[in-house]
Amino acid sequence: MRVSSGVPGFDELVQGGLLPNRLYVVSGPPGSGKTTFCSQFITDGAKNGETCVYVTMHETKEELITDMSGFDFGFDRVMQSGKIQFLNLVTENGKRTITQFGTEGGLTNRLAAFFESNDIDRAVIDSTMLLQHFMGDAADEITGFLSALKKTDTTILLISEMTDPSSYADEHYLAHGVIFFHNYLESGGMQRGVQVIKMRGTAIDCDIRRIEFGDSGLTVHPNEKVEG
Ligand SMILES: Nc1ncnc2c1ncn2[C@@H]1O[C@H](COP(=O)(O)OP(=O)(O)OP(=O)(O)O)[C@@H](O)[C@H]1O
Ligand SMILES: [Mg+2]
Q: Phi and psi at residue 70, in whole multiples of 5°?
């Protein structure tokens, strides 16, 4: 059984969907579609009656809903109806706030325990900047965090900003899959694309496919390859 991404056209790139209970990293430059992709994924889960959580430190729930309000894939409805739990890990003045999950252990244990005790089916974590906020540059701690997430019975999309597109980070190696969004200038204008860099257990070709933002959100054109 594979889990649909909720993004039209994407599942065709990965043999029909994502393998469940795995950790996927979604990377790409600013404005390339990471949050939109993940919002469609979590909305799809909520519409299927799955238990879903969106974890962020960047934005409030209201900001996220406003950002997605230009699309009509139904994010605002499922968010307002409480079908998706929303966790913002940082307070307005920048203080850490992880008391939502109790006070025992570090972020690692608490978030993984939260997923387990709430039987979370799908989760989005936006983004790895969050990890740096809680852990600084402690590589061991970040590795431990990712390993703990991989062991949960939750299908997780972890957004990882890439400031340097040529340098992969720990999360790219540790994750079961890596999805990369492109946003680059080509003769005549901006070209947007998506590339499945890795997907353990799944036959992929690593080519970049054209993506498009429309009223219904992000759509992948699986038969339209674009140059990287
Ligand atoms: N109807 C629309 N509603 C909202 N955004 C749209 C729409 N059509 C196109 N867009 C564009 O889609 C992009 C959405 O990008 P998204 O927020 O998913 O990117 P991101 O990779 O998460 O960026 P960041 O790294 O800044 O968080 C925006 O730059 C926005 O301008
Ligand atoms: Mg984003």
A: -75, -10
Residue 148 and residue 113: Cα distance in Å, rounded?
9
Domain count, the chain: 1
For the cut 60, the answer to whether the pLDDT of residue 123 exceeds it is: yes
In a domain, 5, yes or no: no
CB 165 within 8 A of CB 93: no
| Mutational test site, ligand 1, from 25, 27, 35, 181, max ligand atoms within 8 Å of CB | 35
E strand or H helix that includes residue 195: strand 189-199
Q: Which domain holds residue 212?
A: 11-226
Q: Nearest C-alpha to atom 9 of ligand 1 is from which residue? A: 213
Predicted local distance difference test score (pLDDT) of residue 141? 81
| pLDDT recorded at residue 97 | 53
Tokens of residue 145, six digits: 């965090």
